[in-house]
Amino acid sequence: MVDFKSITKLGFLLTVFLSSLLMLGQDDNAVTFEMKLSKPKLGLNERLRVDFIMNRDGDNFNPPDFAGFKVIMGPSQSISSSWINGVRSYSKSYSYTLSPTAKGTFTIKQASIVINGETYKSIAQDIEVTSAVDKPSDQMTADDVADENLHLVAEISKTNPYLNEAITVIYKLYVSPNISVSNYQPLDNPTYNNFWSQDIKVNGLSAQNGTYKGKPYRYAILKRVVLYPQKSGKLDIEPLSLDVTVDVPTGRRDFFGQRMYAQTNKTVSAGKRTIHVKPLPLDNQPANFNGAVGDFDFTVTTSKTSLNASESLQATIEVSGKGNLKLFKLPELELPSALEVYEPEFTEGVRTTLAGMQGKVSNQYTIVPSFRGKYPIAPISFSYFNPSTGKYTTVTSNEIVINVLEGPLSASSNANTTLNSNKQSVVSSGNEFNFLKLNPNLTNKSVSYFFGSTSFYLWLLCPLLLIPLAIVFRKKRDAIAGDIVGNKIRKANKLARKYLSAARKQLGNKESFYVALERALHNYLKAKLKIETSEFSKDKITELLKERAIDDSTIDNFIALLKNCEAARYSPFSDVQMQTDYDKASEVISIMDKQL
């Protein structure tokens, strides 16, 4: 006989057991979304790691605003998925690295995400930020790794040079093999106050192997510059600062086994460097010393030494070698007053390398003798200081005699000639005594007189005919003289064409054009301000022009042209850009001349 009561009881127990299993399975499959903090309390100089972890893939993740903290890295995303004994395990997280901005108690608010069409939110948590601690206990973040493995260094060839002696600064970015750099941009470029500076172009960034503080590193040369100190004493070189994007390995791998990287931005600086500049010794300093520092050769030559009056010859004063070729004045040519001499034409063939300036500079004088004779060109001396030997050197040219073969004599020579001719003896020709003619054999001839002739009346009326032309010419001249603005413009334009004529001839030839344009700008200031602008930096030129009440916009345009001339040596410039710079230079010189 079947016991229905026992069967009913057994069925009830089986139902309860199956329901429990179902509920347990539902608990295992429940969606979780939570926020985990690396620590509940930290110092002002420590880092906080915040992880938002979920066990299901979701969309539309919305992080909190992290009030009181600065996000220095994140969000970085990681996914973990595995099968163990037929059971699938899945985890996805969004991670942030935070830096506190102030002391106090702050709340990390809720984050939200949508999973399977439903919105889930994390629970807000409080964080206490205390004063900075001596030894931060948090684990190494991407910022910490970048700090230890990224260095910007300014290598200086000499820290105690003489005044106007060349030194080289090379900026190197050292990167450890543990990290990689994907991008960088300058934040603060040094201005090199109290230095004459010249950038040396870096042709592409190529990584090289080296060491930094005894450890292997890779480095790239970012910037090279040659400096000539213009003051003695302690001079500071401002730091170069860069914003660098760094990829730091996290030690984790993605779903496909690839190494995962955390990206962060770091600001690195080469630091301020101090140069101790020695003054040039005053002992045994030549009286004609004009600031030349280096190792030079000095010559004075002429294109010819024999010529006729009214012909021309060229005399060239040239200094060549290695040193501050752009920063001193050449000696001037001393000539006899009987020789007519024109303003010299300055020529510069200087290239700047890591060793400093090398090449030559010269002044070429055009000389035209007016009278016959011999004219000596007195010897010229040139003195320079050689930093290698620590001594002054003076070079003196030889005397050159100009022999003018043919031409008129000077007043003193004519007087001597007349005196000599008065002393000559009288030579008899044998015809001193002849008979006088008693019959003159005179005949009547018709004589025409000028007075009363047609020519006489034409010349008499000529002045009357010229009076209307003179009136018209006078009115035209008065109109031109009254046009003050027009006269200033014409004068300024003529001046601009004078200084820019050499640059205009080189349009289309980038290097020659910008060399000529830069020389024209410096020569203009030299002529107008009576200064050697090559001895000054752009900041000094700006200061001088402001003292002369030049408009700021005009000064900015003038300095921009000088910068273009320097940049053009190392950057591609089109013909359109050259024409634009030429037109701009003409306009700037015209405006500046009117203001001066």
TrEMBL record:
Keywords per UniProt: Membrane, Transmembrane, Transmembrane helix
Segments crossing the lipid bilayer: 449-473
Transmembrane is among the record's keywords: yes
Keyword Transmembrane: yes
InterPro entries per UniProt: BatD
Pfam families: BatD (PF13584)
Name of the protein described by the UniProt record: Oxygen tolerance
Lineage, uppermost ranks: Bacteria, Pseudomonadati, Bacteroidota, Flavobacteriia, Flavobacteriales
